[in-house]
Design a protein that fits this description.
It is built from 4 helices and 4 strands. It is of the alpha+beta class and about 200 residues long. The longest helix is centred in the middle third of the chain and has 83 residues. The protein starts with a helix and ends in a 6-residue tail after the last strand. The protein binds zinc ion. Zinc ion binds next to loops.
């Protein structure tokens, strides 16, 4: 946008400078006409007129330099506009690409979440209500994990190894008793690798 502003500023400056050149040129032409017409006869007036024509020629040259300088600045502003426009479009296409990939990933995650939610409903329906309520309470309290595997006498929820008394209690408990970790309170799931 700054480069575009620079371009239009230069365009305005160029028009103004060209008008200045025109004015000086017209005035010099009028002076030249008067000189050529022979209407001016006094030597003093003739000399003044010639001086003015010379000074207008110099002025015209200076103003033409200004026009050239403005045109050069405008050209580089236009190059900059073209370069930046290309960069904008390249960044935009990268952005579009990334947005497309993000949306696809989001859709995939939504599909996965829907499928996992369905699976969970099926499993939850088979769990006794009071156990499910306990699990849900623990899950909220313990960062999303309400039950953990007991693996080699270690609670996989809090990663602490159970002491021998605890292990013996669990060993003695009947298979359908709900046992919990003394440290983190999570429900402990016993497997053949629990180290009991
Ligand atoms: Zn634990």
């Amino acid at each position: 946008m700054a480069a575009q502003t620079e371009d239009s500023d230069c365009a305005r400056e160029q028009t103004k400078a060209e008008q200045d050149v025109d004015q000086v040129r017209q005035r010099a032409a009028r002076d030249q006409q008067r000189l050529d017409s022979g209407a001016v006869t006094s030597p003093k007036d003739l000399e003044n007129l010639q001086k003015e024509i010379a000074s207008l020629a110099k002025r015209q040259g200076d103003l033409e330099d200004v026009v050239l300088e403005v045109m050069e600045r405008r050209e580089s502003a236009q190059e900059r506009v073209a370069e930046l426009t290309e960069r904008v479009s390249s960044v935009q296409s990268k952005l579009d690409d990334a947005t497309g990939r993000r949306d696809a990933a989001q859709a995939e995650l939504d599909r996965e979440a829907a499928s996992v939610t369905k699976d969970r409903e099926v499993v939850a329906a088979a769990v006794p209500t009071d156990l499910l309520a306990l699990y849900d309470r623990l899950r909220v309290k313990q960062g999303g994990i309400g039950a953990a595997k007991l693996h080699q006498r270690r609670c996989e929820g809090c990663r602490l190894e159970l002491d021998i008394t605890e292990v013996n209690e669990i060993k003695a408990a009947s298979p359908d008793k709900v046992v919990r970790c003394e440290n983190c309170s999570r429900i402990l799931v016993r497997t053949s690798e629990s180290g009991l």
